[in-house]
C-alpha cells in the first residue's frame, strides 16, 4: 500500500470521522475542522474528500435519518473501516517515529 | 419568527448538475449548514457563505452520473443506430430508381416551396429598409365619380402646408415631393439620364437614408443635391463628390452635399437615384411656383409623405383630415372627396381599389402563390408517402425477422421514422442546392433580387421544421402499420395486405392530379388572356415608332427646323410632338361642354395636345372627318375625338359640331378609331386631341422602315446632338413601352406555368413510381394471364385502366374548381377572354396523355415480360 494516496486533508477528515462516529457526516465534520483549525471549511470540500476516502475503502457509509432543517433529506453517515483504521495508525506511527528522532536542541529552538 | 430559507435557485442549479444519486445528501448538507450558520452568525452572513458552499460542490466527481445497473436503451446504443442507418442506406441503394424518384420529387417540391416562401418573405418585407417604416404614411385622396370609387396619390401643394401647420401635433414631418422622373445630370462631360425626386428637406430623415458622405441635413441648402452611391460613382469615379457642382436638366446648378447608400430593390423609392430640394423645383418650374404661391387646391400633381407623431395613429389622424379637400374646394362635394393616410406598410401589397372601394392589391398574388406553394409541397409529400408506403409492404419479411429476434415494436417504429427522416434530410440538402441554382432565373422572371437567407434563423427553423414534419408524416404509415404485423403470419407467408390498403393511395393520386389539372387550366387561361389583350387592335402603328422626352429648354420653339433636319436624314418618315407619349395617357381633364350634354354628367376626358404631323407619325385611322391640316388655319381650334369619346358624349354626326373647353369653342374635325394608350386590359378612355405646339413633352418619330434601326438611330442622334448638345440622347421604342404594359400579367403567367410544370412533373414522378410498384406486385398475375393467352394490349389496358380512372376523377373535380377561380380572376379585366370549353378538354386530354405515357412505360414493360421467368421463381 502506498502511503502517498492519503492526502493531508483526507487524513484530517478521516481522523474527524473517527472522532465523531457515530454522528460523522459532512456538516459535522466541516464544523469540527473549522473549530480545530480556525479556518473556513466548506462541506463541499469535505464531501469530496469523503467520496475519495470511500472509493479507497477507508470509510464506509450508510444513509441516516432525515431532519427538518435538511428539508427532509437524509444524511450520509460515515464510519472508519478497518482498513482506514490501519492506515491511520500507520501514518501516525511514521510521524511518531520521525518526531521521536528530532533531537531536543532542535525542539528547543522551535519553542 | 419565520425560519430563514436558503436562496432557492442554487438548489435548482445543483439538482440539475449534480448526479442524481448524490443530490439528496448534497442538498441536505447545504441546507443544514445554512441553518446552523444562521443560528450562529445571522442570516446575512449565512447567505454570503452559502454561495461559496454551493460552488465547492461543483466538481467533476459530483457531476459524473453513476453508471446504470441496466443496459442502456437501444436509441442510445450506437451499434443499433449504425445498423438502422446501414439498412436504410442499403434500401436506398438497392432500389436506385425509387430512391431517385422519391428524393428527387421531394427535393423539387421543397425547392419550389422554398422559392415561393422567399418570394413571399421579400414581398412582405417590402420597404422595411426604412427604419421609420411603421410611422410613415402617404397622403392620398379618394373620390366617387359617377358611382365609381377611385383613389389617387396626386395631391395639391397647399394640403402639405396645411398638414404642417394646422396638424403640427400629429406629424413629425410632412414632405412634398415631385414624382420620380428622368432628369439629366451633368458633371463636366459626363451626362446621364437618371431618375430622381425633388423633395422637402426633411425627406432624407423621413426615409432614413444611410448617408455614406455628408449628412441628411444636406438638402436644406436650396441649391444642393444628394446622390445615390451608384450615380456618384459614375459621375465622379474615385474623386470626392462633396462640394462638386452638378447641372440638372441643363439649367440648374447644384452642389453635391451628400451621398447615400443605394436604396434596395424592395423599396418603393428604389428608382430614386438622386434627391434635390423641393424649393429648387418650385423656383425652376413656373407652373409649380404658381400653384404654390396661389395655394392652388385645384392642381393635384404631387405626392405628400408624412411621418406620424409617436402618439398618433393612422386611423385617428385620417379621421381628422378626412374633409380637408372638401373644406377648401367645396365645389367638389359631388364626388365626396376624402383625404386619407396610406401607411407605408400597406403601400406595396394593399394599393389598388376596385370600383366599390375594396382593396385589391398585390396581396392577392401573395395569397395565390402561397397557396400554389403549399399545394406543390403537398403534392411532393403525397408522392413521398405513397412511394414509401408502397415500398414498405415489401419489407414485411424484414419486420417479421426483426420481431422474431427480439425487436420491440417501439424499436421498429423508430427505425422506420429514422429512415424517412434520413431521406427527407437528403432531399432538404438537395432542395437548397436547387434553389441556389434556380434563383437567378427566378429573380429574372419575378423581377426580384432574392437570395437565400443563409443567416436567418427563421428560414432554417421553418425549413428544418418542415422537413421534420414531412419525415414524420411520411414515415408514420410504415412505422405504425408495418410494426403491427404478427411475425408468425408474415414469415409463414399467409400475410395478405387487405383489399383496402390501396384506397388511401388512390385518394392521394386523385388529389395530386386535381391540383395539377387545375394548374394546367389556370396557366392556359392566363396566357390566353395575355394573348387576347396583345391581339387587340390598338388604333396606331407602334412598330418603328420612337419617343424622345423633351426635358431641356433647347428643344422648344424649334419644331420646324428640327423636323426638316430629321426628314432630310432620310431615316425618318415623320416627326411630331405631343403632350403625352402615345403609350401612356397621363392627363385627364375636366371643363368640357357640348350641346346635348347631360347636366348631371361629371365629364372627364383624356386630353392630348398634338402637332399637325401627329396623325401621320403614329398612323391613326379616321372613321369620319379628316386629320389636322396646315391648309386650314381654323384647325388651330379644331379637335379630333376617338370613337369612345363620341359614344360618351352621345353625339350623332359629330363632325362639324362644337365642343367648349373652359369656355373656348373647338370644332370637331374628325373621329379616329380608338387608340389604346392606357392599359390594354381596360376599355379605351374617352380622349380628345387638340392642336398645340407649346403644350408638348415628347417628340414622336416614325422611322423609315426601309433602313435598319441602328443606322437610323445613329443619324437621328447626330441631329439631336446639334440641336440639344447638352443632353444625352435617350429614346424609347413604343412597341417596347407597350409590351411593358403586359409585364405583370406575363410575370404571373410565366411563374404559374413554371409551377404548373413542376407540379405535373412531381405528380408524374409519383405515378411512375406507383405504376412500377403495381406492375411488380402483379408479376405473377401477369405471367398467368400471359400463359392463358392474354395479349400485350390486354395487359397494358389492365394495368393502365386503374390510373386512367383516377385521372378522370381528378379532372372531374378540377374543372369546376378551376372555372370558379379563373372566372373570378377574369372579372377584374374589362377586356377579357372567355373561358371556352376546349381549354378544359385540352387540359384533360393533356393530363390523360401524360398519365398514359408515364404508366405505359411500366405496364408495357411488365406485359412484355417472359412468363416463364416470372412464374419460375416459387
Largest sheet: number of strands, sense, barrel closure of chain A: 2 strands, antiparallel
Largest sheet of chain B: 8 strands, mixed
Largest interface (C-beta under 8 Å): A-B, 24 and 23 residues
Apparent shape of chain B? globular
Strand runs of chain A, count: 2
Counting helices, strands and paired strands, the structural category of chain A is: alpha+beta
Helix content of chain B: 40-55%
**What's the CATH C level of chain A?**
Mainly Alpha
Write the CATH homologous superfamily of chain A. Winged helix-like DNA-binding domain superfamily/Winged helix DNA-binding domain
Number of helices in the DSSP assignment of chain B: 30
Protein name (chain B): FtsX-like permease family protein
Membrane topology (chain B): Multi-pass membrane protein
Subcellular location (chain B): Cell membrane
GO molecular function, one term (chain B): transmembrane transporter activity
Describe this structure in words.
The complex is a heterodimer of chains A (111) and B (874). With 111 residues, chain A is α+β, with helices and mostly antiparallel strands. Chain A has one domain: Winged helix-like DNA-binding domain superfamily/Winged helix DNA-binding domain (Arc Repressor Mutant, subunit A). Chain A contains five helices and two strands, in the order αααββαα. In chain A, strands 1-2 form a two-stranded antiparallel sheet. In chain A, strand 1 (59-66) and strand 2 (74-80) form a beta hairpin. The longest helix of chain A has 19 residues, at 82-100. By secondary structure, chain B is of the alpha+beta class. In chain B, strands 15, 16, 17, 18, 19, 20, 21 and 22 form an eight-stranded mixed sheet that branches. Chain B has a six-stranded mixed β-barrel with strand order 4-5-10-7-9-8. In chain B, strands 1, 2, 3, 11 and 12 form a five-stranded antiparallel sheet that branches. In chain B, strand 8 (245-248) and strand 9 form a beta hairpin. In chain B, helix 2 (20-41) runs antiparallel to helix 3. Chain B starts with 7 loop residues before the first helix and ends with a helix. The chains are: A alpha+beta (111), B alpha+beta (874). The interface between A and B is medium-sized, with 24 and 23 residues.
Amino acid at each position: 500500500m502506498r502511503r502517498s494516496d492519503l492526502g493531508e486533508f483526507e487524513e484530517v477528515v478521516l481522523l474527524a470521522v473517527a472522532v465523531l462516529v457515530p454522528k460523522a457526516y459532512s456538516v459535522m465534520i466541516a464544523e469540527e475542522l473549522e473549530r480545530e483549525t480556525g479556518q473556513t471549511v466548506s462541506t463541499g470540500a469535505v464531501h469530496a474528500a469523503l467520496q475519495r476516502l470511500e472509493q479507497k475503502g477507508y470509510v464506509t457509509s450508510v444513509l441516516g435519518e432525515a431532519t427538518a432543517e435538511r428539508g427532509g433529506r437524509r444524511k450520509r453517515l460515515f464510519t472508519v473501516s478497518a482498513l482506514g483504521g490501519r492506515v491511520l495508525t500507520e501514518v501516525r506511527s511514521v510521524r511518531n517515529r520521525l518526531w521521536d528522532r528530532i533531537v531536543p536542541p532542535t525542539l528547543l529552538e522551535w519553542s | 419568527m419565520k425560519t430563514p430559507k436558503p436562496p432557492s435557485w442554487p438548489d435548482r442549479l445543483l439538482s440539475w448538475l449534480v448526479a442524481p444519486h448524490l443530490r439528496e445528501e448534497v442538498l441536505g448538507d447545504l441546507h443544514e449548514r445554512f441553518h446552523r450558520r444562521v443560528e450562529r452568525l445571522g442570516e446575512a452572513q449565512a447567505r454570503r457563505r452559502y454561495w461559496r458552499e454551493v460552488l465547492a460542490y461543483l466538481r467533476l466527481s459530483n457531476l459524473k452520473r453513476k453508471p446504470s445497473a441496466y443496459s442502456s436503451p437501444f436509441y442510445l446504443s450506437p451499434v443499433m443506430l449504425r445498423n438502422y442507418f446501414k439498412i436504410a442506406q442499403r434500401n436506398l441503394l438497392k432500389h436506385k430508381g425509387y430512391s431517385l424518384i422519391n428524393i428527387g420529387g421531394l427535393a423539387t417540391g421543397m425547392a419550389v416551396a422554398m422559392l415561393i416562401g422567399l418570394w413571399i418573405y421579400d414581398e412582405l418585407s417590402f420597404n422595411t429598409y426604412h427604419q421609420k417604416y411603421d410611422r410613415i404614411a402617404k397622403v392620398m385622396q379618394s373620390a366617387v365619380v359617377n358611382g365609381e370609387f377611385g383613389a389617387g396619390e396626386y395631391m395639391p401643394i397647399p394640403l402639405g402646408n396645411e398638414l404642417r401647420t394646422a396638424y403640427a401635433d400629429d406629424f413629425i414631418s410632412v414632405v412634398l415631393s415631385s414624382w420620380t422622373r428622368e432628369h439629366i445630370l451633368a458633371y463636366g462631360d459626363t451626362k446621364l439620364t437618371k431618375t430622381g425626386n425633388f423633395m422637402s428637406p426633411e425627406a432624407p430623415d423621413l426615409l432614413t437614408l444611410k448617408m455614406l458622405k455628408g449628412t441628411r441635413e444636406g438638402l436644406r441648402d436650396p441649391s444642393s443635391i444628394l446622390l445615390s452611391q451608384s450615380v456618384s460613382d459614375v459621375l465622379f469615379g474615385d474623386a470626392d463628390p462633396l462640394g462638386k457642382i452638378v447641372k440638372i436638366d441643363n439649367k440648374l446648378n447644384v452642389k453635391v452635399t451628400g451621398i447615400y447608400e443605394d436604396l434596395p430593390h424592395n423599396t418603393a423609392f428604389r428608382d430614386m437615384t438622386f434627391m434635390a430640394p423641393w424649393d429648387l423645383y418650385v423656383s425652376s418650374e413656373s407652373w409649380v411656383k404658381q400653384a404654390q404661391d396661389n395655394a392652388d387646391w385645384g392642381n393635384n400633381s404631387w405626392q405628400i409623405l408624412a411621418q406620424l407623431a409617436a402618439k398618433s395613429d393612422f386611423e385617428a389622424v385620417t379621421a381628422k383630415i378626412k374633409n380637408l379637400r372638401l373644406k377648401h374646394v367645396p365645389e367638389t362635394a359631388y364626388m365626396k372627396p376624402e383625404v386619407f393616410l396610406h401607411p407605408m406598410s400597406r403601400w406595396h401589397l394593399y394599393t389598388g381599389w376596385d370600383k366599390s372601394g375594396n382593396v385589391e392589391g398585390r396581396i392577392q398574388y401573395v395569397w395565390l402563390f402561397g397557396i400554389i406553394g403549399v399545394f406543390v409541397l403537398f403534392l411532393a409529400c403525397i408522392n413521398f408517402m405513397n412511394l414509401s408506403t408502397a415500398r414498405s409492404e415489401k419489407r414485411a419479411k424484414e419486420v417479421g425477422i426483426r420481431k422474431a429476434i427480439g425487436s420491440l415494436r417501439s424499436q421498429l417504429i423508430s427505425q422506420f421514422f429514422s429512415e424517412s427522416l434520413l431521406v427527407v434530410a437528403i432531399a432538404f440538402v438537395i432542395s437548397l442546392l436547387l434553389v441556389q441554382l434556380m434563383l437567378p432565373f427566378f429573380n429574372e422572371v419575378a423581377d426580384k433580387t432574392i437570395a437565400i437567407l443563409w443567416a436567418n434563423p427563421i428560414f432554417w427553423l421553418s425549413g428544418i421544421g418542415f422537413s421534420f414534419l414531412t419525415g414524420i408524416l411520411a414515415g408514420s404509415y410504415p412505422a405504425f402499420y408495418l410494426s403491427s404485423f404478427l411475425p408468425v403470419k408474415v414469415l409463414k407467408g399467409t400475410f395478405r395486405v387487405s383489399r383496402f390498403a390501396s384506397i388511401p393511395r388512390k385518394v392521394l393520386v386523385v388529389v395530386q392530379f386535381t391540383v395539377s389539372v387545375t394548374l394546367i387550366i389556370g396557366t392556359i387561361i392566363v396566357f390566353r388572356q395575355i394573348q387576347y389583350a396583345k391581339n387587340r387592335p390598338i388604333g396606331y402603328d407602334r412598330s418603328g415608332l420612337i419617343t424622345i422626352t423633351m426635358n431641356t429648354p433647347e428643344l422648344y420653339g424649334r419644331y420646324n427646323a428640327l423636323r426638316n433636319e430629321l426628314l432630310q436624314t432620310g431615316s425618318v418618315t415623320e416627326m411630331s410632338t405631343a403632350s403625352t407619349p402615345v403609350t401612356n395617357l397621363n392627363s385627364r381633364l375636366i371643363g368640357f361642354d357640348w350641346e346635348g350634354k347631360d347636366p348631371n354628367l361629371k365629364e372627364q376626358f383624356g386630353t392630348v395636345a398634338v402637332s399637325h404631323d401627329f396623325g401621320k407619325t403614329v398612323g391613326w385611322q379616321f372613321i369620319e372627318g379628316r386629320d389636322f391640316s396646315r391648309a386650314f388655319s381654323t384647325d388651330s381650334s379644331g379637335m379630333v375625338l376617338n370613337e369612345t369619346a363620341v359614344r360618351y358624349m352621345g353625339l350623332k354626326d359629330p363632325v362639324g359640331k362644337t365642343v367648349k373647353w373652359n369656355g373656348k369653342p373647338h370644332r370637331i374635325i374628325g373621329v379616329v378609331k380608338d387608340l389604346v394608350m392606357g392599359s390594354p386590359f381596360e376599355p379605351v378612355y374617352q380622349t380628345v386631341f387638340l392642336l398645340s405646339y407649346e403644350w408638348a413633352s415628347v417628340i414622336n418619330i416614325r422611322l423609315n422602315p426601309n433602313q435598319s434601326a441602328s443606322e437610323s438611330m445613329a443619324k437621328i442622334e447626330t441631329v439631336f446632338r446639334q440641336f440639344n448638345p447638352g443632353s444625352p440622347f435617350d429614346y424609347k421604342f413604343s412597341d417596347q413601352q407597350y409590351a411593358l404594359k403586359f409585364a405583370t400579367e406575363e410575370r404571373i403567367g410565366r411563374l404559374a406555368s413554371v409551377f404548373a410544370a413542376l407540379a405535373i412533373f412531381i405528380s408524374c414522378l409519383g405515378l411512375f413510381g406507383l405504376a412500377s410498384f403495381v406492375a411488380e406486385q402483379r408479376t405473377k398475375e401477369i405471367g398467368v394471364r400471359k400463359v392463358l393467352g392474354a395479349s400485350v394490349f390486354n395487359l397494358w389496358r389492365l394495368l393502365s385502366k386503374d390510373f386512367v380512372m383516377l385521372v378522370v376523377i381528378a379532372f372531374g373535380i378540377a374543372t369546376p374548381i378551376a372555372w370558379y377561380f379563373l372566372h373570378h380572376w377574369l372579372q377584374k379585366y374589362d377586356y377579357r377572354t372567355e373561358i371556352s370549353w376546349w381549354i378544359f378538354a385540352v387540359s384533360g386530354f393533356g393530363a390523360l396523355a401524360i398519365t398514359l405515357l408515364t404508366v405505359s412505360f411500366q405496364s408495357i414493360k411488365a406485359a412484355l415480360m417472359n412468363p416463364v421467368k416470372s412464374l419460375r421463381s416459387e
